[in-house]
Amino acid sequence: MEAPNNHPNGINVINGHKAKSLEVAIVGGGLTGLALAVGLLRRNINFTIYERAASFGELGVGIHFTPNAERAMEALDPRVLQSYVDVATNAEGGFLSFVDGASGDDGLLFQLRMGKGYKAARRCDFVSQLVKHIPQERVQHLKWLQSVEEDGEGRAVLTFRDGSTAEADVVVGCDGIRSQVRSAMFGSGPSAPRAQYAHQLAFRGLVPMAKVEEALGSGKTSRAIGYLGPGGFVLSVPLAGINMMHLEVFVMDPLDWSDTRSKSEKGNDEDDVKRYVLPATRAEAEKAFTEFNPTVRSLISLLPETLGKWAIFDMLDSPAPSYALGRMCLAGDAAHASTPNQGGGAGAGMEDSLVLAEILAALADRENSGAPVGLSEISEGLKVYSEARYERAQWLVQSSRRVAQLFTRKSAEQEEPISREILERSHQLWDHDVDAMVADALGKLKAKLSEKK
After folding, report:
1. pLDDT by residue (tens digit) across 10-22?
2. Closest listed residue to residue 83, CA positions, set 65, 95, 96
3. CATH fold group of domain 23-451
4. Residue ranges of the domains in the chain?
5. Where in 28-94 does DSSP place strands (E)?
6. Which residues pair with 90 in a beta bridge?
7. pTM (two decimals)
8. Among all residues, which ones are annotated catalytic?
């Protein structure tokens, strides 16, 4: 897509079309924020991304999207989906196999078949593709949000730590689990909504495919496999495009998360990513899987000797009461951070982005038609967005926790009901009609706005 051009009369022009005058501030340039930006470009809506880092990047190693998420990405803008497809690898057979990691024979428990195959990619590669579609002038880096307030004219005023300010009609918090936009909406005290430790941690890494083949044979390098057992599970997903195996080693943790670094190591940055990723050794991961079979132990032995230990946080215990308030709203992890067990967290952000882009486009069209679009109309629109997303997204947070319980069963005695429940939960996630979700939201918005004429 071409970058917006400055029209001689001062009107902002995108791809030869007049851009709608509604101004959107996207706080956070992760996957959700970038996807939303591409969707707004397609709908000729002005926006600016305010990203706190000096460059775009993503925590984590791998990324996977379920069928519902791919449909949402396509509807948001085909280039969002294509950006993922261009860097993703299809696992052999097109499915994710789950086996008994505690038994001696890797016995098959069940398979998840997703219709279009099981794809995975590196997060950084997907981010790099998305960024190509976003004009540089629409992005401001090193902008760490400090507060959001409304000025006398009713616009939102964003103040950043460097002392700079910006104005917007709508503020979208795509700023992750420690969202400053969420704090601006609901406060930051002990009773405020926040992400909390889900009593699960992960060791993650990329291992050269040749090392995996040497240890396990070629039969286990071309398929996506989940090894399940008591207290933990391991996912191995091939990334053939870079000839690497993505390993995720998950451990259930009954203890509270403790940041053991010294004060000097922590520094003064309360939002330091090191709060969630602590230095660890491979031996820590190996210790948690002594009851698993040789295949699993061999996989873990391929991880680097020193690596990160990731604390997994979600918003099950302290959810936001809504995803919208006035001119502000939340999307992605800022709204509904979930554990990765069901593979739906990033996809939920894609669904958020689709509904939000359509709601904002409807508001912008109303403004361009000459009808008023002020705080009242924007607030109604964002409420409709929240209502369209809240129940489903909060279900995913709960369901993902439940899936971890099923994955880490103590025995295989209830194998059939466990696999049946996982399949049911998977299809509830995958089979969602994103087009109907959008149509329903737009219908509700139209009805609400018609009352204001």
Report:
1. 334 444 445 568 9
2. 65
3. FAD/NAD(P)-binding domain (3.50.50)
4. 23-451
5. 45-51, 62-63, 89-90
6. 119
7. 0.91
8. 204
